[in-house]
Amino acid sequence: MMLLPIYRSAVHQFDIRVRAVRPEQWSAATPDSNWDVHRLVRHVIAGQAILPDLLAGRPSSGSAADWSDLPGPDLVERWADASAAAVEALTRVESWDRVVTLPDGPAPTQELGWRLATDLSVHAWDLARAIGAPDELPNDLLAHVLDQSKGSADRWFPAERYAPPIPVPGCTDDLTELLALTGRNRWWRV
Q: Which superfamily, per CATH, for 3-139?
């Protein structure tokens, strides 16, 4: 299954960047005008934390609001725990076609994995831009998440949660195209 190596790669990309956040950067702006670095990281942790519960058919045991007062270093620890548990849960999946219940409706487990890999990839870029870290992502990761995202953009990036997509020329690189699907300008700066 191609999903597992891609998911692990997306986790790794976010991990590199979250561990690079300096103490003064937790309140820095991100490409999402409603979020600072602290809120972005909480959002990503929440996505990872719900994965084991969703795959086990249990209600989620936590939300990003639960960690609103945690300082940055504690968030990095929460990230490490949540992402390790998410990778472990995906590794144990027996049927990728099994349907799980998401906030926006039922979806196969495989789709949930791809959605979270995409979310991790986009937010790794967000975080890199916010803290001035390298923002390039591996070509194989980008190619796979872009391929999955293009066919599902209407479901995965609804107007009520994302800025409108940005039109891009046909010869655009994968990162620029992926970001444009989520309404992000590849050249955003703080």
A: dinb family like domain (1.20.120.450)
